[in-house]
Amino acid sequence: MLLAIIVVSSGVILHSLRRRKALLKVGVWLASTALVCTTAVVAYPPASTRTAGGDHPIPSRTVQTTEGSVRGVVNDARTVEIFAGIPYAQPPVGDLRWHAPKPPRPHVDILVADRFSAVPV
Asked: What is the pLDDT of residue 94?
């Protein structure tokens, strides 16, 4: 009888120790995952825009599009006209979300196309 109690007690103790180790492993994995995810979110750079045409851009000629007039910039080598950040569609927000793109709205003033659209770096 005493031997049975010792065997059962040792089995219960070993099972609880094994379970604690498993819980400890799960806790360590959860903490590690939380640390990695937090670091990835905090360290991710914000969306930024980049100017077209170098440090001292020169305005290009104004051109007509179906949405209105657009003026870009000339690159540093003065060989290429750059028209950056021209919207190709209306933003997909509200009722436009999950639907085919709609044409951009016409603009009355000259659209200065000297910056690329915001993208994560």
From this structure: 92
pTM for the full predicted model: 0.55
In total, how many domains does the chain have? 2
Burial 44-73 (b: 16+ CB within 10 A, else e): eeeeeeeebbeeebeebeeeeeeeeebbbb
Half-sphere exposure of 101 (CA within 13 A, CB side): 8
Does 30 lie in the same domain as 1?
A: yes
Q: Are residues 4 and 40 in the same domain?
A: yes
Q: What is the pLDDT of residues 95-111, one digit of tens each?
A: 999 999 999 999 999 99
Judgement on whether residues 97 and 71 belong to the same structural domain of the protein: yes
